[in-house]
Queue: 2 jobs
Job 1
Amino acid sequence: MNIQEVQNEIIEEFSMFEDWEERYQYMIDLGKSLPLIEEQYKTEDNIIKGCQSKVWVHAELKEDKIAFTADSDAIITKGIIAILIRVFSNQHPKDILEANTDFIDQIGLKEHLSPTRANGLVSMIKQLKLYAIAYQTQLN
Amino acid sequence: MLDLKKIRADFPILKRQVNGKPLVYFDNAATSQTPQQVIDVIVDYYSNYNANIHRGVHALSQEATDKYEAARHTIQNHFNAKHAHEIIYTSGTTESINLVAHGFASILQKGDEIIVSALEHHSNIVPWQMLCEKIGAVLKVIPMNQDGALVMAEYDKLLNNNTQLVFVNHISNALGTINPIEEIIEKAHQVGAAVLIDGAQACPHIKPDVQALDVDFYVASAHKMCGPTGVGMLYGKEAWLNKLPPYQGGGEMIAEVSFDKTTYAGLPHKMEAGTPNICGGIAFGAAIDYMNAIGFDAIANYEHELLEYATKSLLEIEGLKIYGTAKNKTSVISFNLDGIHPYDVGTILDKLGIAVRTGHHCAQPIMEYFKIPGTVRASFAFYNTKEEIDALVAGVKKAKMMLS
Ligand SMILES: Cc1ncc(COP(=O)(O)O)c(C=O)c1O
């Protein structure tokens, strides 16, 4: 699936939730169930300081696609990370660079990507894109 | 007894809905809400007599100057300063502290010592660190204990003849601890040190008497006591303010200027360069009038009641731990749910229309002490109610259910 298709799939999933509680419970459960990153990559180097919750990001090139793993110490942040990873991981660097995150608005989680939210997610997306730039240069 | 119905009607924002729920505002320690009486003063200023002060012969300028100076007197009376010119308008607590730190840069010498407390707002530690670095002075810290109270026996040991300045907050913003500033001031004076008290968190709850305290400097922000943002004050004893050099160069602070020499204006203008926040200063006075009309004793009693009620109700939730359990504290509760990140709790509460603060509350040293990433902080004001606390408790229970 390409990035757009994954985003559409997520939008569809979220459209079944009736209210914020169901949406949040889903994210919390996502955040709880997934081991998102291997412990060895939870290093100071991979940390993105978001003031309140911490986010770790690790990237690896697998053939011509980037595999991302990430984690957070806050569970709701981790749930959103799980969604973002699903969208951006195992995609071509070029597609990652071109993709936007408007779907977050459509699934009712816009406030979490506000630049002033202090949860590290905005910096995380920036970091994903920086990895994409780096790997694209490497691939060329 | 407070007439809560009447008081709440004074605050238009309390009628608001957030995320479809009635707003429960428990972030008062970050900024307080503004009553209509103060909003009216702001509107009146811009509608009727907006003008620059201290420099016009025209009627509006005179009117604005009179109101601005009258507000200075209101602040003077409130803090019981001996002279009106001992009250310096600033943009807030942060600027007030920086003003004093800047002044001490020309007084301190290498090897001099400054004492701060472990309970400080960390942005307020920075000016002293910068100062010490520049001068080669030494910064010492009064430690705290598990309750979040200062260890006064350690303070005694830190004081010596090299101590020039002691800087402590009256009340901690992260934990609500009321510090024994009377004792701190008296002991500092015994070794000849000056004392600066950060009253940002105290002034919404307590009416300090700077003469009775015999404090050298006392600072506060209007926005935490029902006033507007961007205005605050520095009280300094006349002798100290005369001793400190001007903070900034500019209009208002000069008497005569030539290219050879400039003579500075007297107090308070020496410290107030440029066009100030005129409307803010006037509204600060109105906010103080508003709070005094309700009465600080009545406010303190009622807030204490809210604190006890909230503490008891929250502690009934299993796995909830309160940080800051000093005997003397104001209506601030900093807490965590076992194994749950404060950010997650705050996010769920926000969805329920409940405004709390989460994070380290600009007091990272305190969080490091407790080895936690932060807390959820609910801080109550005199316009809050027990019903709102019930909503908070229900919200925390819901957050716990969803998150664990
Ligand atoms: C104890 C304390 N000091 C200083 C400040 C800073 O005040 P302001 O931002 O109004 O300058 C605060 C505000 O949070 C505070 O709680």
Note: Chain B touches chain A through 16 residues (CB under 8 Å).
Job 2
Amino acid sequence: MNISALSPGEEFMIKGFANAKDGVMKRLHAMGLREGRRGKVLLKNGRALLIKLDNFRLIIDEDVASHIEVSNN
Amino acid sequence: MSKKKIKVAFAGNPNVGKTTLLNAIAGTSLKVGNWPGVTVEKREAIVEVGDYILHFVDLPGIYTLDPLSEDEKIAVKFLEEEKPDVIVNVIETPSIERALLLTTELLEFRIPTVIALNMWDEAQKVGVEVDIKKLSELLGVEVVTTVGKSGKGVKELVEAVIRAFSEGKTPKEVRYSAEVEDLLKELSQKNPTATKHDLIKELLREKPDLYEKVRDDRFAFAHGLAKEVVRLRGDQGRDLTDALDKIVLHPLFGIPIFIGIIYITFKLAFDFSSPFVDWLDGFINDFLSPLSLEVLKALSFPEWFVRFFSEALVGGVGFVITFVPLIGSLYFLITFLEMSGYIPRVAFLMDRFMHKIGLHGKSVIPLILGFGCNVPAIVATRTIENPRDKLLVIAMIPFMSCPARLVVFSFFVSIFFRENPALVITAMYVIGIFIAVFTALILRKVLVKEGPLHFVMELPPYRFPSMKTVFTITWAHVKDFLYRAGTLIFGASIVVWLLLNLPPGVKNPSESIAGKIGKALVHVFEPVGIDNWKATTSLIPAFLAREIAISSMGTIYMSAEGITEEVEEFNFKRALFNQGVNLLNATEDAFSSLLSLGIVSLEVEEEQEEDLKSLIAKDFNPASALSFMIFILIYTSCLGTFAVMSREIGLKGAIAFLGYSFAVAWITALISYNLLSRLTG
Ligand SMILES: Nc1nc2c(ncn2[C@@H]2O[C@H](COP(=O)(O)OP(=O)(O)OP(=O)(O)O)[C@@H](O)[C@H]2O)c(=O)[nH]1
Ligand SMILES: [Mg+2]
């Protein structure tokens, strides 16, 4: 399941990254997204998702979200 | 003994307070703001401490030494090539674990390093504790805690930098897994002076498939480090940012709230400033000008100089200076918004719309900055990774109406659109946005789409702006405006005045050089209703800066119509007293206007006989005045914008854009002129 399937308020754990392009992957990793990290979807607005991990928030759009595989909790 | 120079680089993730810290250390007023990607160029500040001269270099924020966008490349290039003596690694303490990922990379430069645990205040609020001593021991670096906003810990930071430099301690480095370390050892035998950073770069060039291994080792190191030194003190209750975001970023209410915020910003700026604008106008025309004319006459200056004084200086520069309160209030509010954290939220709100024109939400940030000033907005596009997107946004920014244009608009509406000034000014902003979108849609068709569009951006928490910073930044903008009035605008007024009085002995200004140029241009502007040489002439020097449109208008009308204000006996004491009373009244009006919901200053327009304004009124009608405003809005008449455009997209591109904007301005003006002429009969 990719992260955009979740609704606001749902928590997740990142399982992996599906066929993401190199640049995107590097960026996501450097921003602190990795396998095993837990987080929560805060809000959704059209194509944009607001997620929260530990003490920071990221905006990602659908294209990026489609590469992030997660499991519920 | 000569002083020792220390080159210090500020490196860290975006939006962690690097520039704020540097401003606190060096007393500079470099641009700060609460979103990632404020600093996009390297900036230097020099401070002398004891026997040392510290050259601080502020860099754009980075997540890794693997840059994607232009601003990141600037930061990484500096670190790799210019070899600073000391690196100050600024960390946003609440998210220290992630920040340590970059730290592990920075340590491999083998440069003495100081870690600044910034936002210490916020860390305490969210319950993140750090064992400073242990962190310092484990990494072999100096560690200090700081609060950039208040300047706490800044002195200790400078001391730590000097200590790190004089002790020359190299930091400890990540130990990778045996396989990687063995390969690194081999490489270092070939090149013994290389740093670990260089070696790894070379290793990954030879064996790219080791990338993930290296990355995972770094991550494990950072993670382990965080486990050793960071302690989380339970949950600290509800987060204000999350609660606010539920409202501000609401799928339905988000956009209306955005529009409301814009409305309030302009309302406050207008209403608060307009009593002061009126006061300044009176102060210059009823006090300063007659006073100095008295003095000039008493000192028996020649007649031409007295004319020069009242036409070029009072009519030209004085005219523009009266708008300082408007500029100041607007910048105050814009800066407040920039510091609050609202700006990056607009990126989230507007993503859907921006996607329709082939961009994503993040590109809206430079566009919004454009409403403050087009020049830094264009520079801010460096954060956009995709060159095509960058070009698109650069082509949109000049249509975002800036405060300089607002000065011209508010002058014109006060003469020609007294009944619905707010509507006309709003229309100007909307036309600008419309043309920007139109331009993007055309360009999108022409340019090839390249690379994936991906939108990832960190969203900072809301932060209450430090008022001191807001005032400092506002003052920097006002100073800049005054400086331009004293240099560019004054210079343009002098040139215009000279051209109005050349060839020597010319009696009728319409026969002067300026008059002839203006008349030739009338042919171009006649179809859009601007059929007067005085108006066309004032458009030419306005290419330098838009405010010059009205300063040169002031000069031209003053000298062409020969207003000789016969001031009947000027009584200094009484005039000064009157000015004092007026200022008090203005202050009272300014504050009381804040209590109403509508835009007060634009509603009440008493009929007053103002010489210059009524003269200008004779040469225009509402339809042609609107054409003039449309030209000021759309045609990129700003030297600063042109210069920065040619730097970012090349001279040819900038010139082509100038031509484009002229054509669009002309066509838009033609349409609006014909529509309005017909409507008003
Ligand atoms: N609460 C708190 N806020 C801070 C502190 N230091 C900086 N800020 C705020 O954090 C925001 C970002 O500050 P900047 O100095 O622009 O950050 P930067 O690291 O230069 O950011 P970029 O140039 O975008 O990489 C601003 O709103 C500052 O007012 C601090 O110690 N505590
Ligand atoms: Mg900065």
Note: The first strand of chain B starts at residue 4 and ends at 12.
